[in-house]
Amino acid sequence: MKKKGKSKSLTVQYLQYQSKEPDSAYSKSQYFYIVRKFLKKCRITMRQQHKAGEVTYIDYSGTGVCYEKKGKKIWLKVFVACLGASKKLFAFATPGERTIDWLNGMILMFDYFGGVTEVISIDNAKALVSKAGLIPVLVKNIEKFGEHYDCIIDSCRVGMPQDKSLAELGVKFIKQRILIPMNNDMTFHSQDEVNHYLAKAVEELNNQPFQKFKISRNELFEEIEKQELRPLPRTEFNVVIDFKVIKVPADYHIYHDEHFYSVPYQLAHEQIEVIVNQTQLTVIYQHQVKAIHQLSYEKGGCTTNPEHLSPSHRAESTKTKEEYLGWATTLGSDVVDFIESQYQKTKNPASRAVGKRCQALMKLCEDKGEAAFKEACKYALANHIASNELGLVISALDVIGQPCMSNEQLTHRNIRGKGYYGGRHEQ
């Protein structure tokens, strides 16, 4: 078995060999010739046969491109993709080689190809792989991309460049035919301008025939690979910008970026996963999606799905101005106006204090009857009678035995009226 450790240089090996047999040792040049001839015989490679629709190889070019902005050169990295069977190429310039840059390249790559391969072959870049190995541990966003596109994301073996030879050949081809001429002979003024030219130049390369075959990459793609690609997902892939495992508090609202979001009340005190992408917050419990909220940027605000509330909390949440006005509408404009007058005392449409008074009015209507209640509301509005005295108004109406007009003044020792509430009064 080969010992692990740093390999020796050929010169060091020769010096050790010469020290053991100084009289009979070959000369240095002869020794080098024999060893290199032997190594050349040992250097064989396995020809890779690629099934149509199976693999896309991706990599970044070591040569970037630039554009000028206010007299300064802004350098861009170039993402390159190559289909395994047809060798069809794709290239896209990005600001860097971050995870988001790889993802943008892969999304546009599959859009350009018009379908998805079974496998994406990647290298072990830190932006892609958390831990290299036979089965790599992928960065979370890369893992989610594979799930969304229903494809396997497989890394090459560490120190085995032959595993991604097609990617390197594609990078080399694009570098020589497109990137070097772009840098030497052209001037661009934006990233969009760079990518517009790249797309056009790569398409021209794909239309050119191979050196050894009378067919182009695009023709080969149409002939053998296009129909083998899987369909694109129906929905767009959203990049995960936050992932965390948290315990749900007693009020079953979780906190993210200065805002609160509800989860089903049954999850209070449970451990959940929270995934946040560019537009949504998703709650997962035991591998099942339990809640999805659109992100809100209201600092200190709260987003609550009524379906998440417990029965008692749901009943409490319906005690709002809108709910009470809905009830009042069934009884007429005087009742609506009287309910509106209650909420003039608060800016909160869900005020608990005003809600209690509206509940009392609903009970009074139920006890005394709708007709008497409506007449009492009409009188109370005209004479600025408080809601807690509406029962006395109804009692007074019962005594006189007839509906009152708005300009009639009822007499009752406990009814104070607008004179009491509107100005000074004596005890």
Question: Which SSEs are present, and which pair or pack?
Answer:
Blueprint: H1 10-20, H2 28-42, E1 55-60, E2 65-69, E3 72-83, E4 89-94, H3 99-113, E5 119-122, E6 129-131, E7 137-138, H4 140-149, E8 152-155, H5 165-185, H6 191-207, H7 217-225, E9 240-247, E10 253-256, E11 259-262, E12 271-277, E13 280-285, E14 288-294, E15 301-303, H8 311-317, H9 321-329, H10 333-343, H11 352-368, H12 370-383, H13 390-400, H14 417-422
Parallel strand pairs: 1-5, 5-8, 11-15
Antiparallel strand pairs: 1-3, 2-3, 3-4, 6-7, 9-12, 10-11, 12-13, 13-14
Helix pairs in contact: 9-10, 10-12, 11-12, 12-13
What structural keywords apply?
4 domains, 15 strands, disordered N terminus, 427 residues, Nucleotidyltransferase, domain 5, four-stranded antiparallel beta sheet, disordered C terminus
Task: Produce a short descriptive summary.
With 427 residues, the protein is of the alpha+beta class. Helices cover 41% and strands 19% of the residues.
